[in-house]
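Quick one, tokens below. Sequence please?
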């Protein structure tokens, strides 16, 4: 074995040289890997005894992309372009041997090879768009030459990898290798190429054609999905260049557009979020190797919207779930809705009917707490009422086996008090899912004062298994997400009394990049959540709307009027009620511009985030940003509220908070951390 450098080596098997990259964890294309490939290829090309080359990787995966940690720093030679150019120019055939994932620069490197073989479990894709980028090492020019323009457009703008079998069908892979014999297969494949005198397939030389109008049609079809993001459009332009320009010119276009994205704020935000998601898994005081408790059977209390959605997460991941509800009709209804949801997914082709039956077969509906006795984890998802929860946890303590984890899905309440209702507070934590719980990625894991480390570790690992992005929050009213959301809602409510209309606030929030504004969100959730006709005093706008049976989308009217397609239009009744409210409260309405609406809604949230950090209810600013990204539809290209605060500049945020303080001292009091960072020129995300 000949070592090329610390992360690559070259061995020969007869006339075939195998160049192996070994740079854990994911063989990213760091400068050392790039140099190793260039030197390894040069050595194999120069060796007269070598006639063919295999490019392979050690460890769990083929090359997973450029080394993202190098982005934003001065570029170092050799560039990835040079690496791929050298591979493609090799006079001896180069075969890429792919296992794990060939992603981004990794797939681009494979596309520079003359042939590609992969194990069936391998996945191949160009996920750069998720980092606000485009494949910048010839990927947008080579991919359409192999899979065609339509498939290439789909792959680069979605960033979703495809499986090896699909890649074989599309010509992206030339042959499938046995799962545990990739290296030998690739070497043999190279030998056969040589024996059969096969030509060198240089992808750059292949033709590429596009149907007239294909690009604009693609843009139109995806306009909603791409709204606000720069990278999808840049990717489309590159594929367009591949179809209209010679290869070298197309590569130059790609390079130029790549650099524009790389230097922009959007990609910076999206790259930050990539690391934020991984960082959120690292919990202070929880060393690697913390033991986990085995979880096989899960219990869920409550078969309402939340309980049903929570159960579906576990059923879909193959866990047995016992769902308990107090009355039979509610239980039947809840189970029926779950089945209906699965069947709808099956109708859309995203589940087979067998999978629907398998999932539903794992569910045991029950009306007795005693059926939870053998569960390893029980999640309570009933009405937000402390007394009811205390009663339930007392019962669980008596019934459920020792060592089980007892969790509450409460959105606001004090987990320590709930834990206090048991003799085993160390086994209690919060698992706060977001509605619809089977869809939204966020799981706030609330760490109580006495939650045991292995309980926390178990829940964090479990979250990954059910496809959730878990973030640890400390005990406080509303935890991270809802505590901050309350402030946005407070300001939205104030703004409409002071001069804006609900649709003005919603438009500003939507244009900022959220899927909808606060009033549309309220209509969707239902205005009567927590409202009752008996106790209504008719004072607030919400009271007045509910009293008129304007309870949101479900009654086809709320802050807006809705048609049968659920399209909304501003309501003249609401306008009248808003004006009346202002008059009754003797508020002189004034014109409020969009900038003020945005700042009033967002800056107090940032300020609250600073308080949350100060109090230690979140471990880091990026955890707060993950909460908002995965639970509330914060636009990824703005990085999250704390990152956004940094982007605007904390001095600016502080300055505006101080101006707003003149209107209301208590509502806009700056957090000491905000003041300190603004004065010292610091940032939340680098703090
Ligand atoms: C690109 O290629 C641009 C080019 O087109 C143009 C260039 C000119 N770099 O996710 P995991 C780290 S853009 C640096 O937990 P898994 C990660 O931070 C790139 N580090 O493992 C983590 O570190 P830590 C296009 C990276 O098994 C550790 O590896 N490629 C990179 O769940 C383990 O990661 C992508 O976007 C990287 N590229 O998933 C692929 N990737 O342990 C990005 C990972 O300290 N990567 N790390 O927290 C992934 O999607 C997943 O990591 C992968 C493995 C699916 C590969």
């Amino acid at each position: 074995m000949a070592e090329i450098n610390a992360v690559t080596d070259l061995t020969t098997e007869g006339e075939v040289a195998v160049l192996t990259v070994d740079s854990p964890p994911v063989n990213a294309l760091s400068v050392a890997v790039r140099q190793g490939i260039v030197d390894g290829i040069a050595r194999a090309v120069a060796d007269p005894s070598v006639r063919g080359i295999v490019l392979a990787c050690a460890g769990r995966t083929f090359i997973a992309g450029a080394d993202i940690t190098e982005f934003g720093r001065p570029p170092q030679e050799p560039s990835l372009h040079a690496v791929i150019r050298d591979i493609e120019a090799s006079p001896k055939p180069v075969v890429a041997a792919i296992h794990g994932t060939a992603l981004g620069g990794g797939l681009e490197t494979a596309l520079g090879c003359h042939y590609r073989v992969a194990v069936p479990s391998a996945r191949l894709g160009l996920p750069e768009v998720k980092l606000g980028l485009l494949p910048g090492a010839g990927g947008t020019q080579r991919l359409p030459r192999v899979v065609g323009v339509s498939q290439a457009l789909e792959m680069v703008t979605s960033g979703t990898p495809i499986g090896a079998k699909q890649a074989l069908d599309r010509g992206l892979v030339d042959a499938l290798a046995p799962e545990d014999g990739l290296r030998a297969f690739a070497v043999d494949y190279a030998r056969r190429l040589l024996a059969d005198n096969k030509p060198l397939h240089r992808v750059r030389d292949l033709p590429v054609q596009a149907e007239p109008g294909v690009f604009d049609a693609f843009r139109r079809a995806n306009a909603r999905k791409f709204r606000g993001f720069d990278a999808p459009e840049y990717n489309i332009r590159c594929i367009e260049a591949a179809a209209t320009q010679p290869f070298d010119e197309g590569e130059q276009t790609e390079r130029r557009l790549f650099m524009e994205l790389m230097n922009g704020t959007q990609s910076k935000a999206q790259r930050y979020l990539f690391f934020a998601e991984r960082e959120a898994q690292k919990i202070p005081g929880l060393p690697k190797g913390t033991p986990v408790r085995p979880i096989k059977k899960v219990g869920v209390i409550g078969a309402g919207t939340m309980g049903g959605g929570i159960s579906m997460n576990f059923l879909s991941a193959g866990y047995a779930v016992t769902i308990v509800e107090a009355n039979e009709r509610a239980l039947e209804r809840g189970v029926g809705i779950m089945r209906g949801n699965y069947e709808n997914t099956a109708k859309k082709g995203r589940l087979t009917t067998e999978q629907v039956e398998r999932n539903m077969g794992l569910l045991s509906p029950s009306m007795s707490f005693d059926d939870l006795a053998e569960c390893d984890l029980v999640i309570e998802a009933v009405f937000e009422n402390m007394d009811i929860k205390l009663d339930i946890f007392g019962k669980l303590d008596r019934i459920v086996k020792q060592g089980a984890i007892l969790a509450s899905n409460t959105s606001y309440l004090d987990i320590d008090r709930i834990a206090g209702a048991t003799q085993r507070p160390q086994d209690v934590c919060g698992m706060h899912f977001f509605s619809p719980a089977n869809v939204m990625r966020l799981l706030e894991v609330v760490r109580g004062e006495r939650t045991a480390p292995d309980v926390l570790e178990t829940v964090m690992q479990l979250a990954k298994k059910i496809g959730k992005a878990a973030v640890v929050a400390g005990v406080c009213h509303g935890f991270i997400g809802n505590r901050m959301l309350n402030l946005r809602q407070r300001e939205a409510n104030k703004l409409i009394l002071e001069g804006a209309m609900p649709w003005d606030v919603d438009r500003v929030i939507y244009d900022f990049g959220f899927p909808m504004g606060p009033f549309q969100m309220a209509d969707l959730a239902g205005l009567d959540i927590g409202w009752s006709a008996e106790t209504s005093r008719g004072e607030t706008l919400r009271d007045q709307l509910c009293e008129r049976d304007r309870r949101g989308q479900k009654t086809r009217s709320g802050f807006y009027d809705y048609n049968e397609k659920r399209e909304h239009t501003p309501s003249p009744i609401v306008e009248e009620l808003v004006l009346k409210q202002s008059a009754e409260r003797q508020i002189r309405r004034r014109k409020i511009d969009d900038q003020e609406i945005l700042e009033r809604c967002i800056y107090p949230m940032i300020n609250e985030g600073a308080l949350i950090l100060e109090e230690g209810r979140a471990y880091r600013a990026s955890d707060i940003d993950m909460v908002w990204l995965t639970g509330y539809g914060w636009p990824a290209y703005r990085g999250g509220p704390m990152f956004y605060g940094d982007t605007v500049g904390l001095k600016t945020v502080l300055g505006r908070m101080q101006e707003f303080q003149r209107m209301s001292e208590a509502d806009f009091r700056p957090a000491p951390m905000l003041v300190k960072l603004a004065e010292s020129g610091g940032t939340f995300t680098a703090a």
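The chain has four domains: 2-262, 297-476, 500-584, 594-680. The longest strand covers residues 8-13.
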